[in-house]
Model the fold of this input.
Amino acid sequence: MKNSSCLVVFSGGQDSTTCLHWAMKRFKDVQAIFFQYGQRHQKEECAAHLIADLNKIKLHTFPLDFFKHLGGNALVNSNIPIEANSQELPNTFVPGRNLLFLTCAASFAYNEGIQDLITGVCQTDYSGYPDCRENTIKSLNQTISLGLNKDFTIHTPLMHLNKAESVRLAVQLKAMDSLRHSHTCYEGVYPPCGNCPSCLLRAKGFKEAGIIDPLLPKVN
Amino acid sequence: MKNSSCLVVFSGGQDSTTCLHWAMKRFKDVQAIFFQYGQRHQKEECAAHLIADLNKIKLHTFPLDFFKHLGGNALVNSNIPIEANSQELPNTFVPGRNLLFLTCAASFAYNEGIQDLITGVCQTDYSGYPDCRENTIKSLNQTISLGLNKDFTIHTPLMHLNKAESVRLAVQLKAMDSLRHSHTCYEGVYPPCGNCPSCLLRAKGFKEAGIIDPLLPKVN
Done:
């Protein structure tokens, strides 16, 4: 595949940054797409631009404020405190977010003549989001191929990895310089808050992998 | 189903207006959703509001300007003249438009506790748009049910009708008062231009059904 083009759905976070490096090993022309969907803060977009620049990747940004108008969840409404509850869907659940991102990515890719899409969704640590699961993504792959009348492939390099395995993959892919600039914290602060579900999941993965997270400020 | 709720993807055009009346026969609570996706003119939205008001239907409007930013097609760029070419996809093809509309409709429906979606897509006169075909919609139905972890049903009352049969169905459903206010012309003019692919298709259907289009100004 090294001579073809691909499009990475890119958020500037840990997983999609690892995917960006995964793609750079496999495709000649790697492009990335970032959606401004009404995030609580600008940190994600700044991280995405910085990492794309660092790796000389063309980054396409698109406003997609549907979810902001839809409202009702903590990811796009900073008045709602972020809570994780193992008994039900977390209140950061944006219904259909990955479906919409991948559908829009496919529309853009269609116009650019790109048929390979890459996303960092992961079933192992899927945090209760049903559109991160493999059966959803396989079904969506078929849907966009039918709906655009073109054979798309959605690649999910992290689908069956846990966070520690993702960290080890990132090390193998020499993604640490990029991960130093990635953004994960739901609260949008630096240093990361360390308490939100997203920070806790990231810290757990690095700890289990026995790797120091390059994002964190050095002690001393 | 008469005691449940549904959501009609509504454009203010002939097909979705017929679907609105189809839904009113079958569901107790009918709601409609309209997407402002960067249409060439405001006529569609005005028609949607008028028809919804006439039928006492709650209409939800959402900005969805992704396609405007995507660009490159005649439906959202009034600098590109509309052309139909039977040899290839028409230049009004917005890649993935129906996929995106139905995915967004499902996200909204999810939050409202609605599981029945209705769309006017039609395979018979599908005008070269692959996301109007039944296999695409069936696949999408499965994708949104998996991705939102809820059993959705996408109803497509017009899927296998030709335009004349759709007109006859509209007559049966007593939709003529609504169709008088519907908007079809790509050029956004009233009286309709009569020459764009959309006007020609509508006129053909009414002619074959032997019905006078209530939209047209009365002679005398």
